[in-house]
Amino acid sequence: MDQLEQARVEINAIDKEMAALFERRMQAVNDVAAYKLAHQLPILDVSREQAVIRKNLEYLQDESLKPYFQQVLEMMMQVSRDFQKHKIGQRCVVYPGVEGAFSHIAAKQLFPEASLHQVYTFEEAFQAVECGEAEFGVVPFENSYTGEVGEVLDHLLYYDLHIQDVYDLKIQQNLLVLPGTDLADIKQVYSHPQAISQSRKFLDCYHWEVIPYTNTATAAKYVSETKDPSKAAIASGETAALYGLEILKEHINTSDQNTTRFIVISKQMRSFGNRFHILFTLRHDAGQLAKVMQLIAEYGFNMESIKSRPLHDQPWQYYFYVELDGNIADPHTADLLRALEKQCEKVKLLGAFNARKG
Length: 358
Ligand SMILES: C=C(O[C@@H]1C=C(C(=O)O)C=C[C@H]1O)C(=O)O
Hints:
- With 358 residues, this protein is α/β, with parallel strands linked by helices.
- The protein has four domains: 3-88, Chorismate Mutase Domain, subunit A, CATH 1.20.59.10; 90-171 and 255-268, D-Maltodextrin-Binding Protein, domain 2 (3-Layer(aba) Sandwich); 174-252, D-Maltodextrin-Binding Protein, domain 2 (3-Layer(aba) Sandwich); 273-358, Alpha-Beta Plaits, CATH 3.30.70.
- Helices cover 42% and strands 25% of the residues.
- The chain has helices at 3-38, 46-59, 66-88, 102-110, 122-130, 150-158, 193-198, 200-203, 216-226, 237-242, 288-298, 331-343, and strands at 92-96, 115-119, 136-143, 147-148, 162-170, 174-177, 188-191, 209-212, 231-235, 246-249, 259-266, 275-281, 303-310, 318-325, 346-353.
- Strands 1, 2, 3, 4, 5 and 11 form a six-stranded mixed β-sheet that branches. It has a five-stranded mixed β-sheet with strand order 8-7-9-6-10.
- Helix 4 links the parallel strand 1 and strand 2.
- Helix 1 crosses helix 3 (66-88).
- The longest helix has 36 residues, at 3-38.
- The radius of gyration is 24 Å and the shape is globular.
- The relative contact order is 0.12.
- The structure holds the ligand C=C(O[C@@H]1C=C(C(=O)O)C=C[C@H]1O)C(=O)O.
């Protein structure tokens, strides 16, 4: 046998073993699909995929093979998701805004195999999921620079829905114009108020009229339709391609770390992860919030975030949102929740998620 033949005999033997292992893996994936169908979980789990890649790459002895093995792992998980899609059927996911909006970009990344539908407002996304028209909704929750999206937080209090997942999308704002436009031609700039405040430093260098718009992508669409070179929009690079605009200035957001946290809303609550979030309301007496903070500290939970928002039907009264490190499945968490239920007027467990530390 020459060298080529010998190597191929070896490859054939390895492929035979891999075929058996592939069948075993797909049986396990089949069980995962059945669980996800029963518990209405999304097919893609980004943090799990990242962990699978990280762990498996560590098993390799030969460093130079790592990028190739990573490709194999990514392909294998794509196959696994295709298989699950076939088993579960197509999921329906709604997002607010138009094609090219950041919610659409996040929804595409979170649900690459789903059928995506747009709605106009955040509330319509909540309504579609609550009435069962859609299984999931992807809505913005918080921006690292401009803070929470208050309206979305409020809907979480008033709608009987939970957070199924949390996804951080790096946001890059760009100045979009009709092809051939110069900076000197611009007189008005349109965008969502959050994108405007994220790009404040850039905008302050010019004397343009800045006009708030429903969202970044509709602003870009509007500029494209007017065919007026004195109008520009602030939006994603993807939006430029969609509406035939040109990126005149890229990356105009003040902070490089500009990230928007999106949430997946669903009727089901996710029960696994290293962090969880809750909403609560209090009796309007002195020291109530301090007592809740004390309970969280006494039970040894690290609080990552606290926010307060006005209650719609009780002027000058507020509800609170907190994010705590810990596992919902842990009995210690159940103890904390029981203690909070005694202390608070209302407690709503929104769900668990995997937060990357550091
Ligand atoms: C199998 C799963 O579904 C998907 C596919 C994965 C895989 O094949 O390893 C991992 C995460 C998910 O995106 C899972 O959630 O475990």
